[in-house]
Amino acid sequence: MARDPRVLVFIGIKDTVVALDERTGDEIWRNNVRAGGFVYVMWDGKSVYATSAGEVWRLDPETGNIIWHNELKGLGRGLASIATTRAAGSPSGIQLPAVAVQQAAQAAAAAAAAS
């Protein structure tokens, strides 16, 4: 029997981003984003983004490794929001298994409805 794909939950707390297994609550990875206090986290279907104290990071969702970091110099140290032009779950290269499974199920349902 095939194992269900792992679904991750991303948490921003106290200068840190943590990924938890959605089913068990087990910690998969954590990465300190060295800023100050509140960490806002966003998933866009491909990447995890975090912002804290006026800085922004792109993290690999599978490992938590920092892909890039921008200090947004000259913009202050306040709260920031994040958005991307990528629609969550859109075809965008490498995807977590849960996203790929969801897309396959949606495609199968659409094909069945069309026939």
Q: What this model shows, in words?
A:
The protein is α+β, with helices and mostly antiparallel strands. It has a single domain (8-88), classed as Lipocalin (Beta Barrel). It is built from one helix and seven strands, in the order E-E-E-E-E-E-E-H. The strands form two sheets. The protein has a four-stranded antiparallel beta sheet with strand order 4-5-6-7, with no helix packed on it. A three-stranded antiparallel beta sheet has the order 1-2-3, with no helix packed on it. A hairpin with a 6-residue loop joins strand 6 and strand 7. The two termini are 29 Å apart.
Low-confidence stretches: 92-97
The helix content is: 10-25%
The second-level CATH architecture is Beta Barrel
User: How many helical elements?
Assistant: 1
CATH overall fold name: Lipocalin
CATH class: Mainly Beta
CA distance, first residue to last residue: 29 Å
Rg, alpha carbons: 16 Å
* Total number of strands: 7
The biggest beta sheet, please?
A: 4 strands, antiparallel
Q: Mean pLDDT, rounded to whole units?
A: 78
Biggest sheet, strands in spatial order?
Answer: 4-5-6-7
What's the number of domains? 1
Q: Which geometry do the CA atoms define?
A: globular
**Class by alpha and beta content:** alpha+beta
Compose a concise summary of this entry.
The chain is 16% helix and 32% strand. The protein is α+β, with helices and mostly antiparallel strands.
Topology:
Layout (H helix, E strand, L loop, with lengths): L7 E6 L2 E6 L5 E6 L7 E4 L4 E5 L2 E5 L6 E5 L26 H18 L1
Antiparallel strand pairs: 1-2, 2-3, 4-5, 5-6, 6-7
